[in-house]
Amino acid sequence: MLFEVKVPTEEKFQVVDITDEIQHLVWKSDVTSGIAVVFTTHTTTGLIINENESGLIADIKAKMKELVPKGAGYAHDHIDSNAHSHLRATLFLNPEVVVPIENGELLLGTWQRILFIELDGPRHRKVLVKICKC
Question: Can you list the alpha helix ranges (DSSP code H) found in 30-70?
Answer without folding.
Answer: 54-67
